[in-house]
Structure formats: structure tokens, C-alpha cells
Hints:
Elements lengths: L31 H7 L3 H9 L9 H8 L3 E5 L4 E3 L7 E7 L2 E5 L2 E5 L9 H4 L7 E4 L3 E7 H9 L5 H28 L10
Antiparallel strand pairs: 1-7, 2-6, 3-7, 4-5, 4-6
Amino acid sequence: RRIAALGTEVTSPFSEMPGQYRPLHNDALGVLNEKQKHGFSTVDKLVFLHQTMLFENISLTETLRVAQVVEQINMREGDVLFENGEEGNAAYFIMVGELMLHVDGITIPMTNRRKPLGEVGLLYPRPRAGKIVATCNTVVLGLMRDDLEILFERRLVSQSLVTAALAVLTVTGLRNNYGMLEAKQSVGETGNSLAL
């Protein structure tokens, strides 16, 4: 199992230089083909994940442990990340590219690199409330609930900090999604509402 190597203390040169790394921007699109062939390095994943809303307040050492277990998912235009109604068991982070959410007759672009998608799936299994499709070549990092639970069980990642961040993200996300759907309904773009 991938996580077996995490039983020992993991150190990183970044731990003594907080804030000294350079963020990934869309400039990464130029090297996407090479990265797709060989995968982003663990350091690339660490730097990226530590800038997300879920891990920005988690130590670099703990974020490194997460970076070692996330799965890189390479998507082409039209590939489906998940379908409406599928059981959620993971959160996804858009590293490069763009996804589109199709829900309740409307389409919403998903480009935020700092906020995970489907983060409720890390808390408990819940059916997905929409379909996510890639609109171009896209790289997504997937964090599986089972892998995160093992990190928690082995006390390699702080369960209380991650759970608190997930709770804030979930409530904020539900509020924002509901507001977006309300706005779309008010202009007649959809006749149904999303049961949140």
C-alpha cells in the first residue's frame, strides 16, 4: 500500500522556509505534457496542496504526508470526473486546467485552484449533487477518504485541524452554491432547485 512508507517522520527542506516557495500558475500549462507522462513530483503536489484552503493552515510536514498519497488524475476534454448520484469517497483539487459542473440544468465553470471539489466525500459517503466534466486537458489530484482515514489513525495528520477546515469549506460551499442556484433561478435559467 502507498501509505506504508509513511510510518516514519517525514522532513522537508520547506519546513524551515515557510512562504519561500513559488506558487504554480497557469504557466504550468507549458510543461503539462511532460508532467502528464511522468506525473507531478511529490514536491510539486506539496507546494500546490499547501496553498489550498484545506491545507493552508496544516503544517508542511503533515501536508507532505497527504501529498504522498494523493492520486494524480489526467483528464482530456470531455472526460467525466464523477457522475450525479455517485457515492462520494474523495475530494479533488484542480492543479491545471478547468472542469465544468453540470447540475440541475445549469452549467458552472470550476476553476478555483484553492478550493477542493467534493470535499464532503472526505467526511462521509454522500451522493454527488452533479456531474463534473473536463473542458480541456486537466490535471486533478484526488484524495481518497480511506487514505485520509489511515493518516488520521496513524496520527500522521491532525484529524481535528483537517476536519475543522472541511467543516468550514463545506458550509461555505453549500451557502455559495445555493446562492448561485438562486441567482440562476431568478433569471429563469433553471426551474428546479438543488437539494443541498
